[in-house]
Amino acid sequence: MALPRTPSHQEQTASAAQLPRPAPPSHVEPPCPFDAWASTYDSSLLQYLLYRPVHQAVLQHAHQHQPNPARILDVGCGTGHLLRSAAQTYPHADLAGIDPSTEMLGRAAQVMPAAAIWFARARVEALPFRDATFDLVLSTLALRHWHDARKGLTEISRVTTRTGVVVIADVLQPPPRQHKPRRWTPQWPRSARHRDQMPVPAGVHHAVTVAGLEPDHLELIHLTMPMTTTTLIVARRRSAVR
Description:
This protein is of the alpha/beta class. The chain has helices spanning 46-65, 81-89, 102-111, 149-159, 202-210, 238-241; strands spanning 71-75, 94-99, 118-121, 134-140, 160-171, 213-222, 229-237. The protein has six helices and seven strands, in the order H-E-H-E-H-E-E-H-E-H-E-E-H. It has a seven-stranded mixed beta sheet with strand order 3-2-1-4-5-7-6, sandwiched between helices.
């Protein structure tokens, strides 16, 4: 079923998309603090020092673990930069992005070509999609802003297909000094790639597991920003890895 066309500030519909019709929101969301950043977000220096390097790493791992997804969701899509890159990596996939910021979504809809990506205003804790909708779910530098990480991860697990892949990256608390990987170097994207060498902060790892996801790849990415380490998690539905 094709998505319905709605005002561009909240949703942009891809005429060729085959995503199921989303559920209507259960309540009206208050204004989002990120609305004020929309006009300058894409020109921020952080785009080049943090956001885009992380986007590149996420797409690299996404393609490695899920090379041919039919449907992709970006949770916390902002102005849509990651989805625009994903459209080039996955030219045949249906793409959707959700974000709590109306202004960010409005900017995303303006930048994207008509009928290319579907955007909706929503929070991760209440994703407006049916179960098992997406083969690939991405989220970059958004997890720390979620109201309830465990609930958000549970929702992500719910909308991911049985063989789907979830890739999440964010700047989380650094691991204890004694756990720092020996092969970890200050050159992005070089980093150790073994789960036992780089523990994700305990709360996040627990939330991922409780949500029904099984991490099968963890990586620390040292960026050009001083003292900034990004944790990247690739996970699958637990039923798919048993």
